[in-house]
Design goal:
Growth Hormone, Chain: A; 78% helix; 0% strand
Length: 487
């Protein structure tokens, strides 16, 4: 009977992981297919370039700003409940977008999609953290990361096929069956979990302060290339962002039930994982964004041909991420993260030598190295962050980690865009892209050093847990000790 119950619990964990992967697949797929559809959307809705930019930016703003809030709401009111609300909202907004008759309709729907994604994404990682014991989280999160890469891999290809042979609306309608699957499996397998250590009370002042601060910061990063980093508007937004974040820190130290416990950052591993999340996204997303432009505008590849040429990177992530997750459970996250960032630095350094007539054969080693490096970083980084905090705080911890990734990626695109935005010829574009990739390589190399210094050398789940002698009860897995900065 005991064995049957244990087997049932184990199956429940993996079905829960499947549900989280369904939702993650939907969100990551949507991130990539929309870019392919932008020209068709522009023609059909007669949208301006500004309208197209806000088709992307409305989602980015809502998603990035509400990540921490979404994670904390899950901790307070139930992670499964908030996750399901997010999935339903994401699916409903996808249906709404599919019937868009104007640019304003489309942008409003994309903002609602961002809200749904912000409720979903922290919940996926926090639910996995609560479903799996510490010494198995690496394997589970590795699978989670591999599914994310799978969605990124097939997104441009699937988007190109759907836009070319069906319609641009179909890329949003495809979310509906995926969402239905995520809801069904979640209701079937996932147990509810929440933070039982605090009262179910929303910190409205903290939510307002962090929303104002992150909205200003994200908008400044998105528009810095167009408005100029030293323009009055951007400087005012940065000042507002600093004021919002400072007010948030003051509020959180005074309220009875804070949204974010700043003691999290007393953990060297949690701090290091968030810095790594910022750095890997800074290096990765800037490279993806502008190499896409390079291959289409300089090498004359079609959108579909461009998407196919990113497959070596994403296929490496699909293959290596689950392996990295299992190795995290065995050797700990620090050596994997350090090696991964070193490979990312090497990939960016290699690609910084591209020219206007560079062949794909030259770019291929960089794409492969980038994929392996990303895979070695993402899963161990997530495992390290989630194991560094008590699992009752998993939702808000996941939201903070996702926010670090979002801000890093947005800044990476903005910084590289500053190099490229003022170019007036193809030769200048290529030279500026090479310089930007070189900066990304230095940032990634610095991240490798940060990871080695801050990430704990302990195994992801703490000490290993050998089987107890016959006749003795198995002790529950022990969370790793929380090391503090300066200790």
């Amino acid at each position: 009977m005991t064995g049957r119950l244990a087997l049932t619990d184990d199956n429940r964990r993996w079905w829960t992981l499947a549900a989280m992967c369904f939702a993650l697949f939907m969100v990551m797929l949507d991130n990539t297919v929309v870019n392919v559809a932008l020209p068709s959307i522009q023609d059909d809705l007669r949208t301006s370039i500004t309208g197209l930019e806000w088709t992307v930016n409305a989602y980015t703003l809502a998603f990035g700003v509400l990540l921490v809030t979404g994670g904390r709401l899950g901790d307070i009111f139930g992670r499964r409940r908030v996750f399901l609300i997010g999935v339903v909202l994401f699916a409903a907004s996808s249906l709404f977008i599919g019937f868009s008759q104007s640019s304003a309709w489309l942008i409003g729907g994309r903002a609602l999609q961002g809200v749904g994604a912000a409720l979903m994404m922290p919940a996926t990682l926090s639910i996995i953290t609560n479903a799996f014991p510490p010494h198995e989280r690496g394997k589970a999160i590795g699978t989670w990361a591999g599914v994310s890469a799978l969605a990124l891999a097939i997104g441009p290809v699937l988007g190109g096929v759907l836009v070319e042979h069906v319609s641009w609306q179909s890329i949003f309608f495809i979310n509906l069956p995926v969402a239905a699957g995520a809801v069904a499996v979640t209701l079937f397998a996932t147990r509810e979990s929440r933070d039982e250590t605090v009262l179910p009370k929303i910190d409205f002042a903290g939510v307002a302060a962090i929303t104002i601060g992150l909205t200003a910061l994200t908008l400044a990063l998105v528009e810095a290339g167009a408005w100029g980093w030293t323009s009055p508007q951007i400087l005012a937004l940065f000042a507002l962002a600093a004021g919002g974040v400072a007010a948030f820190a003051l509020i959180e130290r005074r309220v009875a039930v804070p949204m974010v416990d700043f003691a999290f950052f007393g953990s060297r591993t949690f701090l290091g994982a968030n810095i790594v999340a910022f750095i890997i996204s800074f290096a990765m997303l800037g490279m993806f964004f502008f190499l896409t432009l390079y291959m289409q505008n300089v090498l004359d590849y079609s959108p579909l041909e461009t998407g196919v040429r990113f497959l070596p990177t994403t296929l490496m992530v699909i293959v290596v991420a689950p392996i990295a997750g299992r190795q995290t459970d065995r050797i700990g996250p620090r050596p994997l993260i350090t090696a991964g960032l070193a490979l990312v630095a090497g990939a960016l350094l290699w690609q910084s030598f591209l020219q206007a007539d560079t062949s794909f054969a030259f770019l291929l080693p960089g794409f492969v190295l980038m994929g392996v490096g990303i895979a070695l970083v993402m899963s161990p980084m997530s495992t390290a962050a989630m194991n560094a905090v008590d699992q009752t705080k998993a939702g808000v911890a996941s939201g903070i980690l996702s926010m670090s990734r979002m801000v890093g990626g947005t800044l990476g695109v903005a910084v590289l865009g500053t190099f490229i935005g003022h170019t007036t010829s193809q030769a200048q574009f290529v030279d500026a892209l090479g310089d930007g990739l070189l900066i990304g390589a230095f940032v990634a190399a610095a991240g490798a050093a940060v990871a080695w210094v801050l990430i704990s050398p302990e195994l992801a789940g703490g000490a290993t847990h050998p089987s107890p002698p016959a006749g003795e009860a198995a002790a529950p897995p022990v969370e790793p000790a929380r090391e503090t900065v300066g200790a």
